Amino acid sequence: METPSSVLQLPTEIWLQIFSDSNFLILGSERDGVPRSLLLLDRGKFASSPKTVPLAYLERQEALRTLSQTCRALRAILFTLLWERVQACFDSKNGQTTWHANVANVLLRSCKALVKTENLFIARHVRVVSVSLSWHKIAVVAPLFAQCLEALPNLDTLHILYLESKWAGTIDTAFADKELPGVRTIILPRGAYGILAACPNAHDVSCTDERGTQLFDTLVECCSEVERLQGFQLTTVKLKSLSKPY
Q1: What is the CATH number of the domain that holds 225?
Q2: Distance separating alpha carbons of residues 245 and 225, to the nearest angstrom
Q3: For the chain, which has fewer Cβ within 10 Å, the N-terminal or C-terminal residue?
Q4: Over the stretch 179-200, which tens digit does the pLDDT of each residue have?
């Protein structure tokens, strides 16, 4: 009986260190380099096979989820850590469903849970959202995803790992009347310009696709607070457009 009680007496700082990026791959951490690290992926390979993102990024969330389900005391300790990040971008079903169906269904479940009134206490803990937007059920996923993001009052970082450009219009429509003023860091492919338009206070914007012309145009038009750009091909004309008053 001594071991469990000792574990539960660990200060919060120790739990934070245990689940820090010193011990786990964390999508979005300083050590991982995101929003830089996604730019280091083979873009062609990722576009054709999005599940090539290492499953090691799941380990931290799985460990937190497992421990938080062991007892009420651990749940109370780890609850904030568990819910500060929402991820729906990896295939962990080992072929039971297609990658596109799996990530879409995970995202649907997460969004449906977070928009419920009784789960507002959970939504306020979410700071980082990392998703892949596949074609599967995209007409249903897109508006619910937009609604979900708007319901996260402390969201500050958004990673869109995958989106086929042909679905850009669907995403743009879903986010047309949305605003995410708290988002400061965003990494996204060129087809997600509709999401970027909803983030007027973004400071750090990274494009995972070198041909992000429309994404850049959206940035110039809608995001006046940008301090850092990554992944864009900046021509002289584009640099001049950034220097113009908004």
Answers
A1: 3.80.10
A2: 12
A3: N
A4: 999 999 998 888 999 999 999 9
